[in-house]
Amino acid sequence: MLFTVACEMLGSAADAEDVFQKAWLWWVKADLAQMRDQRAYLVRITTRQALTRSEFAAVCPAQKGIFGADSVLPPRQPSQTNFT
């Protein structure tokens, strides 16, 4: 499901895979005991990462694929949203 969300947003399987991997890294670091809705958290992380990646591609199309979105723009912080 998460890969599909990212792929639909970005239009590229390669970009969606990168976003999915970053979402997984956020998930591994998350405090699951404090989370009310784990599925919503995963979708939110994936959506935010995809938005960050697409915003970067719109601003710097020549850099897309060379350095990746997170080398220039910091990722959105899922921890800023209270899920409890």
* Low-pLDDT ranges: 69-74
Class computed from helices, strands and strand pairing: mainly alpha
Beta percentage is under 5%
Task: Bin the helical content.
Answer: 55-70%
Q: What is the gyration radius calculated from CA atoms?
A: 13 Å
Give the SSE map.
Layout: H1 2-10, H2 13-29, H3 38-59
Task: Give an overview of the whole structure.
With 84 residues, this protein is mostly helical. The protein has one domain. The protein is built from three helices and no strands. The radius of gyration is 13 Å and the shape is elongated. About 7% of the residues have low confidence.
Task: Give the tags.
84 residues, 0% strand, mainly alpha
Quickly describe the structure:
This protein has 84 residues and is mainly alpha-helical.
